[in-house]
């Protein structure tokens, strides 16, 4: 894809001054008149000028490097996704630079800036838990820098995306609990700003509606993905006057914490409460009781994210249409959700 970054020459032409004057002003050299320096800095900011921007139309600027930003590599989903992305990128002749946000919006901004300075040719990003302002991502879009979002994304950003059908997956998980005798089903969700979490809550509510189960908002608890907060929210949910007899949890990591909290209170799984989660982490099959979980096609998702990015990187113009690839999921049924298996 061709990129047209703002150059010193563009600023000089707009202000009708020499390129060397612009260069000295941007470097803060003292011989430049203060008013001239102000004008240069103001226009550079307005035009979103960056001295180290990638100029992909110059062959010597090709770095064959992709920047990948994920919330946390300690999460199985993201480490597995990175393995897939890196393998697909290497096969295409690209290397990968990886950053993790540790669920911080500010760190996400810093990661984007640092990767731009490293002259990556494109980005594959999953947004952090705390991200609710997308200006730093929209800025990449305005600069025509190829970008693919996966897993956690913003619907308002016009880029290619690789996601799963979260609504359908959550509907499937909730329906499974209903079919196994649950009638008061709770949901341990993520932060309210996460599109992924909200879609899963909607799928859960749709399943309840299909079976005429009236469960109010008091059965939906939002967690921040930390172990401590998940334990606290689980105990609060189980302290309701009519506690749930089934729970859908937004991720396996949170499910492990929730199950630990319930076991400490003598709540039996699945006899008292059946549990279904998402991500199908390998340890789910060895946890006690084994955890029913929604499996996502991580290998295929990573490969697809790279394919969509390369499609833009290797295009001859900026007219490549954006594509949202929605992948199917599979419910892996284990002991934690089978109330009938005693």
From TrEMBL:
UniProt-recorded Gene Ontology molecular function terms: DNA-binding transcription activator activity; sigma factor activity; transcription cis-regulatory region binding
PROSITE patterns named in the record: HTH_LACI_2, SIGMA54_1
Residues annotated as domain HTH lacI-type: 6-60
Keywords: DNA-binding, Transcription, Transcription regulation
SMART domains, A to Z: HTH_LACI (SM00354)
Pfam families on file: LacI (PF00356), Peripla_BP_3 (PF13377)
CDD domains, A to Z: HTH_LacI, PBP1_LacI_sugar_binding-like
Gene3D superfamilies named in the record: 3.40.50.2300, lambda repressor-like DNA-binding domains (1.10.260.40)
UniProt protein name: LacI family DNA-binding transcriptional regulator
